[in-house]
What does this fold into?
Amino acid sequence: RGNISNKGIIYFSPYFNDKKMFKKILNLIKDYKSIIFHIYSNLKFDEFKKYDHLKFKKIGNDFEKDLMDCKFIISSSGHQLISESISCDIPLYIFAFNTFEQNYNANRVNFHKLGKLMKKCSKNEFNEFLRNIPKYQENMKKFKEKYWKKEWYDVLMDYLKKDLGLKLLKD
It folds into this structure.
C-alpha cells in the first residue's frame, strides 16, 4: 500500500439493509471532521450529505482504489472484506448482523486483535479503536506470519488441536 491517508472506509453491505444501524454509525462519525470517510452504500442518507467530510459512494470500482490508502474500515463482518483488510493491514471497527457467520467472524477479529468489535457504537469505543490502530496493524502482520504461510488444512488442524484441545482420529 502507498501513503496512508487520514481516510476511513465505511462499507454498508447491500445484503443487509439495516438503516437504523447504519444511521447510528453515521451519527457517530459525523463529529470526526479531521477524518475523511468514504461511505459505500446502495442506500441514501440525504440528511448526512451536509457534512463535507462524509463522501457517499456507490459500491463499485472506486472501492479497491480507496482500500489502497485508507487508515481503517468500518463494516459488518463478512469474510471477504475481513480477508482483504488483513491482506492490506487495514484495521477493522466491525459489527455483526444476526447470523452465525457474522458473529463468528466479528468475534475472531476481536479475539486476534485485528480490530475492535463494535458493541456500543460510542465515541469512547471508537476513540479506543483509533488509538489502537498501530497495534491492530502489527497484530495483522503477526497473524499473517502465523497463519498465511501454511496450507489451510494444516491451519485448521492446528487450531482444532491446540486452541480447542480436540483429539483427532488421525493423531
